[in-house]
Each structure stands twice: as C-alpha cells, then as structure tokens.
C-alpha cells in the first residue's frame, strides 16, 4: 500500500484514484525537469501538427469525431487558434508588412479631415492585431452557423468549436500570401489581385468542410457553410465600425492624445 503525499489516501495503483497524484514522487532534479519539458513539447508538437494535417485532409470528419469525444490527439480549438494567429502575426511582422502598411497609410492620410484621420488610425490599430481580429470573428461566424444549421442538432458551443478550427487553419494561408505582398511595388493593387484567390480558398474550404461535417454532398449544405462565414464576416465589420464610432464619440480627446493627432 502507498499513502498519497497529497491527500493521504492509501492505494495500490501507480496514481492516486482520488487526486491523481503519482505514487512515486522523488526529489525534483534537472533530469526530472528536462523529462517533463520534453514530454510537454513532444505532446504539443504532435497535437498541433496532427490537427493541421487532419484539418487539411479531412476537416469536417476530424472536427465531428472531436465533438463526439475522440480528442486525445488533437490540440484544443482555442489553443490551436491562438498558435495559428500567433504564427500568422510573426510572419506578418518579420516580413515587414506592419511598416509597409504604416507607410502606405501615411501617404493616404495627407489632407484628410481630423475626424477621418482619427478613425483610420483607430481601425489600423485594430487590424494590426490579427489575433484580436481573428478571435472577434469566431463568435459571429459561429452564431450564423448555428442559426443556419439549428435543425442539425448541434448547439452553439459545438458550432463555435467547428468555426474555431476552420478559421485557425485558414489563418495559416497568410504564411504564404504575406511574403508575396512584401515584395510588391504596389501593395494595394497586389492585395486586391490576391483577394480573389484567397476568397476562393475560403469558399471552397468552408463548403468542403461543412459537407464532410454533416456527412452530405448537398450543395445547399455547403452553400450555407459559405453563407455562415460571409454573414459572420459582415457582422464583424459592422461591429468594428460601431465600436470605432462609439469610442470616438465617448473618448475622442483621450484618443487624440494617445494617437498623437
């Protein structure tokens, strides 16, 4: 019999059935710390890369089985979204796109009225934080998805998980597109030219994923999946516009001092 050093329960297994403490808890050494670190890093790499692979090859099926309960190999949806947004931001930053955008904005701002200049700077502040933008999109897209598919038996939280995984996977597309924008002589024209293929990727991927998720080949289901992200994105734009308007109305002096206008 072993007495748990954490809760005092006597047991015979390798772990305490009451609190989960290990039966053998020796003195902590550098070797112990190294083993713990290696295990956590390997587990994270396997979960992250496995999730990317599954979302690339069978997105709808993998998310459906995750919701059913097969979750050991997957990284959790919000953690996955956090890391994909972080990777996208690092690529955006180290490609120098934040500086390029600031230069382009400075050229466009000459001669603008003060109120318009303030709103542009505030919107730029929001768009320069892609993690905020991506996280803000999920609740709206999930709401539209839930409303469009409310008869399918999935609740709002499950649609939230579905959209979180899909948006997280799609945010990795910027790893390819951002460096291409960096070497463009005309950022605005290049961004517009790349918007069409990017839109096609989003439409095809969402339609394909929703068809797999609901296990159907019906065009209406795939069309609703695309409609969910379109309506959700529209709601985000309206929400951001309303938020900027409210902030400018109530906190304009503070914003002018902060943004140095």
* Cα end-to-end separation: 72 Å
Count of DSSP-assigned helices:
10
* CA-based gyration radius: 24 Å
What about the largest sheet? 2 strands, antiparallel
Number of strands: 2
Strand order of the largest sheet: 1-2
Low-confidence stretches: none
Helix/strand order? EEHHHHHHHHHH
Helix content: over 70%
Q: Which term fits the overall shape?
A: extended
Q: Give average pLDDT, whole number.
A: 76
Query: How much of the residues is beta strand, in percent?
Result: under 5%
Secondary structural class = mainly alpha
Question: What this model shows, in words?
Answer:
It is a single chain. Strands 1-2 form a two-stranded antiparallel ribbon. The mean pLDDT is 76. The chain has helices at residues 30-57, 59-68, 77-94, 97-109, 114-127, 130-148, 156-171, 174-182, 187-213, 219-258, and strands at 2-3, 10-11. With 261 residues, the protein is an all-alpha fold. The longest helix has 40 residues, at 219-258. Helices cover 74% and strands 2% of the residues. Helix 1 packs across helix 2 (59-68), helix 3 (77-94) packs across helix 6 and helix 6 (130-148) packs antiparallel against helix 10 (219-258).
């Amino acid at each position: 019999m072993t007495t748990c050093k954490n809760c005092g329960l006597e047991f015979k297994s390798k772990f305490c059935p009451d609190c989960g403490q290990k039966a053998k808890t020796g003195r902590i050494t550098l070797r112990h710390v190294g083993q713990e670190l290696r295990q956590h890093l390997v587990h994270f790499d396997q979960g992250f890369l496995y999730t990317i692979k599954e979302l690339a090859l069978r997105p709808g099926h993998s998310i459906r089985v995750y919701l059913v309960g097969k979750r050991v190999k997957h990284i959790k949806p919000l953690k996955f979204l956090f890391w994909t947004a972080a990777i996208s931001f690092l690529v955006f930053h180290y490609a120098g796109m934040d500086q390029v955008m600031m230069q382009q904005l400075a050229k466009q701002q000459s001669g603008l009225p003060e109120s318009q200049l303030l709103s542009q700077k505030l919107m730029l502040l929001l768009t320069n934080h892609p993690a905020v933008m991506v996280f803000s999109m999920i609740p709206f897209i999930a709401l539209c998805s839930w409303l469009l598919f409310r008869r399918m038996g999935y609740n709002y939280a499950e649609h939230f998980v579905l959209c979180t995984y899909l948006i997280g996977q799609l945010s990795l597309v910027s790893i390819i597109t951002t460096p291409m924008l960096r070497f463009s002589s005309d950022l605005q024209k290049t961004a517009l030219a790349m918007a069409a293929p990017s839109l096609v990727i989003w439409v095809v991927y969402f339609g394909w994923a929703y068809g797999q998720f609901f296990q159907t080949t019906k065009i209406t289901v795939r069309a609703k999946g695309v409609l969910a992200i379109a309506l959700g994105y529209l709601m985000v734009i309206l929400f951001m516009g309303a938020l900027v308007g409210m902030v400018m109305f109530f906190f304009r002096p503070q914003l002018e001092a902060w943004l140095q206008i």
